[in-house]
Amino acid sequence: xxLEKKKKSKNKKYDWIMVSSFDKRKRHIEFLNSLSKxxxxxxxxxxxxxxxxxxxxxxxxxxxxxxxxxxxKVKKLSxxxxxxxxxNIHQAKKIELTLNSKIFINSSILDxxxxxxxxxxxxxxxxxxxxxxxxxxxIESKKNGEISSDIKxxxxxxxxxxxxxxxxxxxxxxxxxxxxxxxxxxxKKIQFYHNKKISK
Length: 200
Fold this sequence. Notes:
Strand content: 15-25%
Number of helices: 9
Number of strands: 6
Distance between the termini: 48 Å
Shape: globular
Low-confidence stretches: none
Oligomer: single chain
Largest sheet: 6 strands, parallel
Structural class: alpha/beta
Strand order of the largest sheet: 3-2-1-4-5-6
Radius of gyration: 19 Å
Mean pLDDT: 83
């Protein structure tokens, strides 16, 4: 099993992946700057996002820290650092890129149940996340991911995860996300009403 995990790890193109809109609350810039300060710009990354130009720009957007400004800063950083940016890609391509990545990054402190993080866990990708009340409750240290209390600590945690990649489960979905594991009461109720309906 350890050899199989090492093989899967070596075959992956990206060390880390982020799937998020260019909202300032998602903290792309802070995470990328933290990587730079910790001399980890050599790690190969991938950012998947919506193109900010999908929405019409309003006059006051020129003076705010809007998705356009975040995107432009991230694009500039991509020329100095080692990550690719993908905009408006199909769901199938998103799945392909996630499967081709070692660690899913969620640097936002506000997400209580980010869909992309749960999707990554469904694909059995270890997660490095800020602490939230929600999907990060499913993370168990040294099993399926790590939780960071400070964005400045994320690069070091990412490096430790990559160095000890074989520790992390590649069966996250089966172990943590099956409905009867984390929503047992709901499953029991559905089964109860289903059986009641059949017995009528």
